[in-house]
């Protein structure tokens, strides 16, 4: 199969493939998604096969607006309307109890809940509208690879396995959406996966305490979101996390051991240590926003270089830093450079 690259003038053509059960990857503000018509069982099954995704890991259903969710859900948490009004379209996935048999069971991997998200991307919203049905959309990478933030990443992983990719440039946020469980109307909302919609932002907007899955706090707990148990985002090259005070020591150690180092490097790091780096993936500034945007692309790029180790910066675990560190720790297998 030849994987076609669709531009924004070709949305109708891409939509036609999706209506007929084919797979087309789409851009979003977080990462690229692997699209299939959520109402077609065989198309959804194909998504699991193409990604090599474990069949117990449910998919997110991407909708054009909140109205579309109401076709599949009839029990809503009292905070739903406020959440949707404040955060959709955007990087927030919401888990609802599903109306029985409203969607093929494979979508939610047999669970009684299903997750929905309205992505903040004009091309993808236009695509869903044109298809006339919601689209499942796991990150469009081979399972176990970093999520794709550019269409080239999708092409690299899935060329020849899917019908097409809708081109939308680089994604702006770079880490996957926050997953918020609001399936039980009697319980406070709970974050199952951290993303760009932070606990702080949710609490400020909703004026209620937001719970966080214990798995995200304590290693020993089993996750409530099946996907969080898999070792994601691991590049082939070993990744070490470096605290801001430890860069000098880390480079001195690497140099004295003749290790070739690739670095996800802010402008300051590039300036201070350029002669001790074999490869650089440049971050645009010093912020965690820039680090999150560059993380997956950087890991992919540095993995192609002849380096022994990848160094990535540690950020404090507040705000977007929670999501960034969650993904980075998995990529680094929890390993910090110790001076
Ligand atoms: O930003 C994103 O969320 C991207 C873009 C393309 O929208 N999609 C994405 O999908 O990251 P995926 O499949 O890679 O991650 C979905 C996560 C998994 O951890 C899965 O276990 C969890 O959401 N999830 C989905 N439905 C769920 C459900 N009903 N209950 C618990 N967890 C669920
Ligand atoms: Mg994924």
Brief sketch in words of this structure:
One of its GO terms (biological process) is tRNA processing. The chain is α/β, with parallel strands linked by helices and 339 residues long.
List keywords for this structure.
339 residues, alpha/beta, DHBP synthase, Rossmann fold, 2 domains, eleven-stranded mixed beta sheet, four-stranded parallel beta sheet, 12 helices, globular, binds magnesium ion
How is this fold's topology laid out?
Elements: E1 4-6, H1 11-19, E2 24-26, E3 33-37, H2 41-51, E4 60-62, H3 66-69, H4 80-87, E5 92-97, E6 113-117, H5 122-131, E7 135-136, H6 151-158, E8 164-166, E9 178-181, E10 190-193, H7 199-206, E11 211-212, H8 214-217, E12 238-242, H9 247-256, E13 261-265, H10 267-273, E14 279-282, H11 288-303, E15 309-313, H12 320-331
Parallel strand pairs: 1-8, 2-8, 4-6, 5-9, 10-11, 12-15, 13-14, 13-15
Antiparallel strand pairs: 2-3, 3-7, 4-7, 5-6, 9-10
Helix pairs in contact: 1-5, 11-12
Bound molecules: threonylcarbamoyladenylate (TXA) and magnesium ion.
Write structural notes for this entry:
One of its GO terms (cellular component) is cytoplasm. Belongs to the SUA5 family. Required for the formation of a threonylcarbamoyl group on adenosine at position 37 (t(6)A37) in tRNAs that read codons beginning with adenine. Its main location: cytoplasm. By secondary structure, this protein is an alpha/beta fold. The protein has 2 domains: about 5-210, DHBP synthase (Alpha-Beta Complex), CATH 3.90.870.10; about 240-330, 3-Layer(aba) Sandwich (Rossmann fold), CATH 3.40.50.11030. It has 12 helices and 15 strands. It has an 11-stranded mixed β-sheet, sandwiched between helices. Strands 12-15-13-14 form a 4-stranded parallel β-sheet, with helices on both faces. A hairpin with an 8-residue loop joins strand 9 and strand 10 (about 190-195). Helix 11 (about 290-305) runs parallel beside helix 12. The longest helix has 16 residues, at about 290-305. It is globular and about 60 Å long. Bound molecules: threonylcarbamoyladenylate and magnesium ion. Threonylcarbamoyladenylate (TXA) binds next to strand 5, strand 6 and strand 10. Magnesium ion binds next to loops.
């Amino acid at each position: 199969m030849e994987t076609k690259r669709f531009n924004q003038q070709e949305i109708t053509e891409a939509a036609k493939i999706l209506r007929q059960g084919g797979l087309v990857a789409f851009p979003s503000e977080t990462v690229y998604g692997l699209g299939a018509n959520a109402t077609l069982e065989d198309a959804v099954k194909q998504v699991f096969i193409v990604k090599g995704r474990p069949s117990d890991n449910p998919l997110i259903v991407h909708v054009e607006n909140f109205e579309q969710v109401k076709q599949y859900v009839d029990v809503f948490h009292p905070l739903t309307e406020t959440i949707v009004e404040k955060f959709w379209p955007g990087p927030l996935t919401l888990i609802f109890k599903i109306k029985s048999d409203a969607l093929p069971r494979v979508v939610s991997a047999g669970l009684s809940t299903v997750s929905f998200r309205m992505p903040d991307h004009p091309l993808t919203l236009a695509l869903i509208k044109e298809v006339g049905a919601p689209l499942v959309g796991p990150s469009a990478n081979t399972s176990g690879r970093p999520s794709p933030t550019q269409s080239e990443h999708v092409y690299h992983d899935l060329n020849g396995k899917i019908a097409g990719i809708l081109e939308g440039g680089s994604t702006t946020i770079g880490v996957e959406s926050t997953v918020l469980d609001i399936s039980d109307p009697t319980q406070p909302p709970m974050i199952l996966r951290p993303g760009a919609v932070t606990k702080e932002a949710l609490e400020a907007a909703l004026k209620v305490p937001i719970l966080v899955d214990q798995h995200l706090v304590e290693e020993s707990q089993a996750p409530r979101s099946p996907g969080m148990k898999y070792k994601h985002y691991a590049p082939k090259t070993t990744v070490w996390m470096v605290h801001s005070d430890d860069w000098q020591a880390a480079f001195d150690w690497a140099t004295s051991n003749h290790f070739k180092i690739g670095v996800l490097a802010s402008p300051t790091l590039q300036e201070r240590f350029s002669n001790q780096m074999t490869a650089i993936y440049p971050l645009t500034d010093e912020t965690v926003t820039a680090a999150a945007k560059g993380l997956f692309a950087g890991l992919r790029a540095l993995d192609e270089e002849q380096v022994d180790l990848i160094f990535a910066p540690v950020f404090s675990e507040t705000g977007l830093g929670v999501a960034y560190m969650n993904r980075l720790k998995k990529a680094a297998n929890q390993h910090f450079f110790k001076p």
